[in-house]
From TrEMBL:
Alphabetical UniProt keywords: Hydrolase, Metalloprotease, Protease, Signal
Species name: Ilyodon furcidens
Name of the gene this protein is made from: ADAMTS6_3
Any Pfam family the entry gives: PLAC
Chain ranges of the PLAC domain: 40-78
Superkingdom to which the source organism belongs: Eukaryota
Annotated protein name in UniProt: A disintegrin and metalloproteinase with thrombospondin motifs 6
Entry's Gene Ontology molecular function annotations: metallopeptidase activity
């Protein structure tokens, strides 16, 4: 289960997100739910050379799959 929260570009709570664009609050896993962090530190690194991973952490986007993958090292443990 996840919590869907609408945030402004500054990371503040907002009511301006169209409900039609929000992901569902709950969904069934396709195969298995893998909630365990990547234990192999060699494979877990921030993909982008652009320094936006600290912002991903600051605005608490590490729970989103895309950002967790792109900023694996930064998001590790969060």
């Amino acid at each position: 289960m996840r919590t869907v929260t609408c945030l402004s570009y500054t990371g503040q709570l907002s009511n301006e997100c169209p409900e039609s664009l929000q992901p569902t609050t709950m969904q069934q896993c396709e195969s298995k739910c893998d909630a365990t962090p990547n234990s192999n530190n060699d494979e877990c690194k921030d993909v982008n050379k652009v320094a936006y991973c600290p912002l991903v952490l600051k605005f608490k986007f590490c729970s989103r799959g895309y950002f967790r993958q792109m900023c694996c090292k930064t998001c590790q443990g969060h």
